[in-house]
Amino acid sequence: MTPAVETYATLAEAARAMASGDGVYLAGGTLLMRAVNAGEVPRRIIRTTDRTLREIAPVGDAVRIGAGVTMVELLQNRELAFLHAAARQVGGPQIRAMGTVGGNLFAPHPYGDLAVALLALGARVVMAGQAGARPLADLLRDRARTGLVAAIECPRPRDARSFGFLKVSRVHPRGASVVSIGAHLPREGGRIRGARIAFGAMGAAPLQASAAERALEGQALDAAAIARAGAVAAQGIDPPSDSLASSWYRREVSGVHLRRLLESMERG
Amino acid sequence: MSDGMIEFRKEFFADERDDTLNEIGKPTRRQDILGHVTGRSPFYDDHLFQGLLHMRCARSPHHAARIRRIDTSEAERTPGVVRVLIGRDVPLNLNTLLSLLDFGIDDEPVLATDRVRYRGEPVAAVVADSEATARAAAAKVRVEWEVLPHVLDVEEAIRPGAPVVLDIYPGNRFIYHGKYDHQKLRYGDVEAALRAADHVVEGRYQMSPIEQAPIETCGAIAAPETNDRFVCYSSTQALFFSLATSSKLLRLPSSRLHFIGGTVGGGFGGKVDSIHEPLAILGAMLTGRPCKYMWDREEEMQVGAPRGAERWYISDGVMRDGRIVARKFVGYFDSGAYTRLSSYAIIKAVGHLPGPYTIPNVSADVSCVYTNRTPATAMRGFGITGVDFAIEAHMDKVAEVVGMNPIDFRILNAYRDGDMKAHRRSAKNCALIECCQVVAEKAGVQLSNAARTASSRQGGGGDRGRLPAHTALDQSGRVEGFDTGSYARKAGQRPATQHQVPAPVAARASPATQAASVQSRPRVEETRVAPSASQTTQQPAPPQQHPAPPSAPPRSGPIRFSSLSGFRRR
Amino acid sequence: MAKKPVTFTLNGTERAAFADPGQNLLDLLRRGVGDLTPKYGCAQGGCGACTVLIDGAPHLSCLVLGETVEGRAVETAAGLSGAALHPLQEAFMVHFAAQCGYCTPGMLMAAKALLDQTPKPTREEVEEAISGNLCRCTGYEPIIAAILSVANGSVRA
Ligand SMILES: Cc1cc2nc3c(=O)[nH]c(=O)nc-3n(C[C@H](O)[C@H](O)[C@H](O)COP(=O)(O)OP(=O)(O)OC[C@H]3O[C@@H](n4cnc5c(N)ncnc54)[C@H](O)[C@@H]3O)c2cc1C
Ligand code: FES
Ligand code: FES
């Protein structure tokens, strides 16, 4: 009923405390404290004051973003301009001042707008106490008991115009997503190579629209390819119904919004 | 036409108000604004108490169920829990809000004992030393449910065989005047006028429940005072209502209750139901400590009484030239599981019909229907807002049928000073025509010459000011077994006692029994119009050019609408 | 479970309180410290009535774990006025930006966070800055006008 709150000076200690499995990590708290207030109280709340979680640093052609970086901090960093459109769309000013990049990876439907952008960009997650990084897509497929995320490594899009983000919500400027879309379409010789399209609010967690990716792969980004991608956007996806939109509605409009995003990217 | 509000008032109401008003039209400050901007306005939760206890209710997960057993033992054993209240702890566990005004039969328990009738209905109240403990312990109240069939739609609820929500209303409808299962309005002869009309235009309109959603959730804090009284800080919008309701339910003289309120964090009608004070005070009485009962946001949205859903059927008889000659309403208010204020909302609604138009034949059958939804209550203009939406949407539809622009059409049918309204009071201070003219001007709509030059102060009265020569009456929906002497009481019943199930009620009487009851009970009280032999249909008099001579035969005078007890002769 | 001592500055003054485990900052401020200006509207992050500034940035105190403000600077509406009212308070009075007043303390803090960073915001920036705060009474326009009037230095217009 009342949680034990454990505060650690280092990430390593916090990760060790998490290892026993009955603790829940507290980052910005925008989701976890909401649950606590509603009576869903974990036995142990684990947090750390480790500053390395707030660091942003380039690594090769990627940027390493500490899991504890808030949306506001991300928005203040010019290196991360390609993520600003997505970060700006997360909640209101208070949520952005509090909510972290790491927490966004764990946000349940319909949240996780930044994670959508990161997924489209092929980001990888660095787990505390583990060497190397694993694809974000893997983590999003099964988010229970993953351990502690230390940082996200997000490849920088080579060309700013190859990445686009769109969030559709009913309430402006702060509503939750009816659907959010990240599209990374790098081009070689005018042809799309390595298309990645991610949807938010179309499943329990952000997911890739593989049919649309296939429709675009190897194509020029022209009206025909855009139309084909839009037509297959929801293929194989079973979006949830909630108070914002029904599953049917999401399936119907996701292709329309994908088309609009791609058209705006085509115009540059 | 001038834009300013003041000029508008002077133009149209010059003879209605003197000019000694010296605040209107000038900016002024709210007297409470300094408190608001400094954060010092004392809302009910802004009072600190030593040893404050927190109350939280265990609620029904079902729309309808019988309660076989309530087991509070595990909740009681939870460390920090001071007391768990159930229905039998409430001195008088049955109430209807308007019983204070002798309006309606007690129908709603504070804490349900044998049955629940809507999802979220409280069955037990846990009092604990922290909000978190109260919440956790409330989840440990075990109830053995026998789930019952439920009904969530007004028209399904009045079908024969529908699950009965409240035994005292076997037809799932509130009983008006102890006589009818709906509130009636009869003015002229609608059926005849519909037959004579060039077009009959029908429409069905419906609105969902609307939560008032105040930013401050509803609640109250009560604490024992040293003088054998209880102080109660409340979010109520109706302090004396809450005081008297608490006094009734707790069987405490009101002199022992010290209510403090008036600083309300948004009400919009949703804070008149006096739900919190009786329980908070009871918590303080039974524990001897200050006790707070405050809804969280989820409760506010789930069990906070909304503006109820309404469904309206409107049939208009209209002539080719655009004059509406008949308007018939059949309306259903979704009261939810208990009466609260819906019965009264309908009295208001029916008094408002047919909207701000002069229509010589109007009828309405409006039912307050019980369903297994959250009880409904007041919200901004309640009783009026929903049907106005229906009326105005219908006006547009009828305008289209007769091929008129909707503003011209409204002006043609608008009421004018001196016109008789369907609730038998003559209209004054009418301004619909002028409003329409301003709207047309602002919207760039070209009005007909007649509409442009029309005025609320011309063309009314005369024939338009007289009661219909003939009003068609009927006894549909007549019920037996209720006390007609009082407003809406059950036969032989006194307020504030437990109810008995009435003798079979003719709420779902077959046409044959209805006809029979017409014969046996020719007396019709609510219209109080002397039946006339004439069978002529009322045609609307066109706006008259000259004042008509006073009508020859003496008629019943206009009847004054009294907000609660219905119609009274002026 | 043991309470935890927390020391922080509240509106410039050092304060200490004991936080219950899991207690949010809203409750800690209201019940632990007695600053009743932040309001409870939802405890879900949805309404903004509990908005306070922590180290200058707007936070929803209902979603902040109380003990985490150790050593930090918290500002609430109680600290807005000293001998004189804060210009935002003046502007809210002049522009009728409060009706029931329940959202007002949180609204003022969201507005202060904006003006501290961006003294001359555009209307869009003002809308964005209060987008985490719900007001059920005013329809927002008077609030936006009040905040803009402070930025323009025309409160008394
Ligand atoms: C009113 C409101 C509006 C919102 N609007 C949006 C929106 O528009 N878009 C959007 O995407 N989200 C939105 N959110 C959700 C949320 O605020 C964000 O997703 C935010 O980024 C979550 O981060 P946090 O640091 O606050 O997470 P926390 O609440 O601290 O944590 C959330 C979950 O993630 C886990 N976690 C956090 N960090 C880590 C880590 N490093 N390693 C492992 N697990 C971790 C926690 O254990 C917890 O289970 C909204 C929330 C609220 C209350
Ligand atoms: S109470 Fe904190 S956002 Fe509503
Ligand atoms: S003034 Fe009432 S909620 Fe804003």
What does the secondary structure layout of this molecule look like, with pairings?
The complex is a heterotrimer of chains A (268), B (570) and C (157).
Chain A lengths: L3 E5 L2 H9 L3 E3 L6 H6 L6 E5 L7 E4 L2 E5 L4 H5 L5 H7 L5 H6 L2 H6 L6 H8 L3 E4 L6 E2 H6 L7 E7 L7 E7 L7 E8 L2 E2 L2 E2 L3 E5 L6 E2 L1 H7 L6 H10 L14 H21 L1
Parallel strand pairs in A: 1-3, 2-3
Antiparallel strand pairs in A: 4-5, 5-8, 6-7, 6-8, 9-10, 10-13, 11-12, 13-14
Chain B lengths: L4 H9 L19 H5 L15 E7 L5 E7 L1 H5 L3 E6 L28 E2 L5 E7 L2 H8 L3 E6 L6 H4 L25 E5 L2 H7 L2 E9 L11 E6 L5 E5 L4 H12 L6 E4 L15 H12 L3 E4 L2 H6 L7 E9 L5 E13 L5 H11 L9 E9 L14 H18 L3 H8 L18 H12 L5 H5 L28 E2 L5 E2 L20 H10 L38 E4 L3 E4 L1
Parallel strand pairs in B: 1-12, 10-11, 14-15
Antiparallel strand pairs in B: 1-5, 2-4, 2-6, 3-5, 7-15, 8-13, 9-10, 9-12, 13-14, 16-17, 18-19
Helix pairs in contact in B: 7-8, 12-13
Chain C lengths: L3 E7 L2 E7 L5 H9 L17 E4 L2 E4 L12 E3 L11 H8 L9 H14 L5 H7 L11 H12 L5
Parallel strand pairs in C: 1-5
Antiparallel strand pairs in C: 1-2, 3-4, 3-5
The structure holds flavin-adenine dinucleotide (FAD) and FE2/S2 (inorganic) cluster (FES) (2 copies).
CATH superfamily of the largest domain in chain C: Beta-grasp domain
What portion of residues of chain C belong to β-strands? 15-25%
Quickly give the CATH architecture of the largest domain in chain A.
2-Layer Sandwich
Give, in spatial order, the strands making up the sheet with the most strands of chain A: 4-5-8-6-7
Give the low-pLDDT segments of chain C.
Answer: none
Q: So what's the overall shape of chain A? A: globular
| Interface with most residues | B-C, 35 and 40 residues
| Oligomerization status of the protein chains | heterotrimer
User: Major sheet of chain C: size, sense and barrel closure?
Assistant: 5 strands, mixed
E-strand count of chain C: 5
Overall SS class of chain C: alpha+beta
Please indicate the count of domains of chain A. Answer: 3
How large, in whole angstroms, is the Cα Rg of chain A?
A: 18 Å
